[in-house]
Design brief:
Length: 194
């Protein structure tokens, strides 16, 4: 047995149904507008510059300073932090090397999946050990690092830092003078993808 609704109840039910549709469709329209305007939540943004297209180092086989080849070995799922300072870089490089060492230590249990590649001979004050791999300076290797000698408007004295994925693609670039906590946050997010 059904009860008849009064015209007032019918109008109220219709308005309620329209309000539900408006809330649902309105949120979709707002989300779409924010997405196409380029806005992203703070937790979804990279701190480093996402390289488009990424640098490709797969064909380059760097040489270690102490002898032997350094292979990318994608099966090991090893991420790399790479820096290629100019010859004669001292104080700025020592400071950067210390900051990168702290970032590596703060990776905690994930530090086993991160290596630090120093391209060229580091100053004597740079702490060796841990995940630091010193590679010979090579023109092909430097050429695979986008804007390794700086970008227009950047500090020409500073050293950019790169993140290289397990396959040998250079995917992120950090301009000279970057905040190391941003590098740590980006690496932590990338390691969760493994």
């Amino acid at each position: 047995m059904t009860t008849a609704q009064t015209p007032r109840q019918v109008r109220r039910n219709r308005m309620l149904l329209l309000a539900i549709f408006a809330v649902f469709l309105g949120s979709l329209v707002i989300a779409g507008a924010l997405r196409f305007a380029g806005w992203r939540p703070a937790g979804m943004k990279n701190h480093g510059e996402l390289l488009q297209p990424p640098g490709d180092l797969r064909a380059v086989v760097p040489r270690l300073v102490d002898g032997g080849d350094y292979h990318w070995n994608p099966g090991e799922r090893m991420w790399r932090i790479a820096l290629a300072p100019p010859v004669g870089c001292t104080d700025a490089c020592v400071k950067l090397g210390h900051e990168i060492g702290i970032v590596w230590q703060l990776m905690g249990k994930d530090a086993d999946h991160v290596e630090v590649l120093w391209i060229g001979v580091p100053p004597p004050d740079v702490a060796r050990g841990g995940a630091l791999r010193v590679l010979q300076a090579d023109a092909a290797l430097r050429a695979g690092l986008p804007r390794v000698d700086g970008a227009p408007g950047e500090d020409p004295v500073g050293v950019p830092v790169y993140v290289i994925d397990p396959n040998g693609f250079v995917i992120l670039r950090y301009a000279p003078g970057f905040d190391p906590s941003g590098l740590r946050a980006d690496l932590a997010r990338l390691l969760k993808l493994m």
